[in-house]
Automatic annotation (TrEMBL), chains A, B:
CDD domains: PBP2_LTTR_substrate (cd05466). This is LysR family transcriptional regulator. It holds the Pfam family LysR_substrate. InterPro entries: LysR_HTH_N, LysR_subst-bd, WH-like_DNA-bd_sf, WH_DNA-bd_sf. Keywords: DNA-binding, Transcription, Transcription regulation. Belongs to the LysR transcriptional regulatory family. It comes from Cohnella silvisoli. It comes from the Bacteria. PANTHER family: HTH-TYPE TRANSCRIPTIONAL REGULATOR (PTHR30126), HTH-TYPE TRANSCRIPTIONAL REGULATOR CITR (PTHR30126:SF64). Residues 9-60 form the HTH lysR-type domain.
DNA sequence: AGGAGCTATAGATCACGTCTATGATCAATA
DNA sequence: TATTGATCATAGACGTGATCTATAGCTCCT
């Protein structure tokens, strides 16, 4: 039984319309083509599928049995094609993004809102984790793209730089005397420092910066979230190292102020990370395009 | 979306085996053909369906969605093909026969038993009725073939003569004096005659025979079934006109005897009737072949 | 009798499905 | 590190078979 499945499409329409001529029109074929196709099917089964009469065709008993299967099959294919079109049009589908909570909250969110408004049919899945975790998610295929701090050096990954973040040291009212001063790193280190505890890119970056100047930065307090970094600084428990964009509200309202240093802190870059040589879903491509 | 459904077969096997090479082997194609087929599908949707890696292929999110539909569709087609093969092999199906009760009982039954033994998967449907009723059944498509007395003159029908029946007059002990006599039609008519009441072929035939000899046969008793014809004759209510083959048991055991006439009664022919120019089901063809 | 449907058949044509040959990439070996 | 053996992709050639046009045959209806 080596049948061309295309024949079933012809059979389906012939049965559905009850006319080879009609089927031909539906399929943009000529009537003899349809006639021939049906004949092929009949020959392959060794069974007659249609009664031919002057008004058209009618299923035989055996043709009716075949139709009961083929009809369902063809409907499934139609549904599949509709679904594919919907996926392509982004009427449908899902987008799975990995990244840190703070990046989601302060940076990715507006893009997600925009994306969701434009494509309300796409389900969004956010998976937060540290940069190494996000990389694993990506490699395991659990997310479509990751939003992480650069640089990422991994030959399996492709990273599109998307924007810069400026990290800085901030303090609260308790250290008001520093507000108008320009501190050296050495001076800064005399104060209690609050850093993000986890093995994050930001933490690594600041450690390296201090090392490049010959100092070692050792935090008084380590916390597990950006929110705590901010809260601890506000309460005067120390000076927090935090992304400036994440505390813009506090800086504005004056509950925190930025410590001015005599050396520049290099900005950190945020990138959108995907698997290299792996095709993206339409939704993922669209999102990246939107963020650009 | 004008897609060749053949591509879905290729897609199905590629997804199922996780390898274009394997799919090619399954489908007796070469790997480039499969590769090309998948590419066509992808292009037609504008979506990537597989991740290609050095071990084979893996469905993308969108490919997985497609597969969820196509898998069911392909399974239905496989089932359909199996079913068709079963119908062809007569492992399966139904055979609907029309005819008179008496023909079924005395003539068709052994063939049906034989058929059923050879093809136990075929469901048998027997519809009894008079010849005109059976013809209607056939034209309405309610039966596949009819077993009736010939001649049938209907251009829509095709009749295969299959065997002869000899009708005759029989009587019981009450008319024992006739056993060794040879009667003329005129003499016969002096006795009470029992005929089948319904507008049957047999009734028409005997009427015509008498008319051709210039007589009119008028029954004393009309009954509605062959069984009653026999029973009435046995009980001596008259002389029944009945098919000899239907009373072979009674003739043998002596409860009935055949009246000898001085003119021959022409045999009646039984035929298997089908719609002309209408294909037969495999089961019907097989049955006819068996009866021959 | 003629016309308007329908399907079947015959024969020609050419698109396209399939092939072979080869390249590119990757992973697991030696 | 080079080698081998998988994988899939690409290019180009080939030939089959799907499709076409033209026509016939049939049935029903006017």
């Amino acid at each position: 039984m080596i049948n061309n499945y295309e024949l079933y499409k012809v059979f389906y329409w012939a049965a559905k319309t009850g006319s080879l001529t009609q089927a031909a029109k539906t399929l943009y074929l000529t009537q003899p083509s349809v006639s021939h196709a049906i004949k092929q099917l009949e020959d392959s089964f060794g069974l007659i599928l249609f009664y031919r009469n002057s008004k058209g065709v009618e299923l035989t008993q055996e043709g009716a049995v075949l139709y009961s299967y083929i009809e369902k099959s063809q409907i499934l294919i139609s549904l599949a094609e509709e679904k594919m079109a919907a996926l392509k049009n982004l009427d449908n589908g899902e987008l799975r993004i990995g990244g840190s909570d703070s990046l989601f909250k302060h940076y990715v969110l507006p893009y997600l809102e925009d994306f969701h408004e434009k494509h309300p049919g796409i389900k969004l899945h956010l998976n937060h984790g540290t940069t190494p975790e996000v990389i694993s998610f990506l490699k395991e295929g659990r997310i479509d793209l990751g939003v992480v701090r650069m640089p990422i050096v991994d030959s399996q990954l492709e990273v599109r730089e998307s924007f810069q973040l400026q990290d800085c040291f901030v303090a609260g009212a308790r250290y008001a005397e520093l507000k108008d001063m320009v501190l050296s790193l050495e001076m800064l280190l005399k104060y209690p420092i609050i850093l993000f505890s986890r093995n994050s890119r930001a933490r690594m970056a600041i450690t390296e910066i201090f090392q490049s100047y010959g100092y070692t930065i050792k935090p008084e307090i380590e916390v597990g979230s950006v929110d705590l970094l901010i809260e601890f600084a506000r309460r005067g428990l120390g000076i927090s190292y935090v992304t400036r964009e994440f505390v813009s509200k506090e800086l504005e309202e004056g509950s925190l102020f930025e410590i001015q240093l005599d050396v520049p802190l290099p900005p950190s870059h945020v990138g959108i990370m995907t698997m290299r040589n792996m095709p993206l879903t339409s939704a993922a491509s669209r999102f990246i395009e939107l963020v650009r």
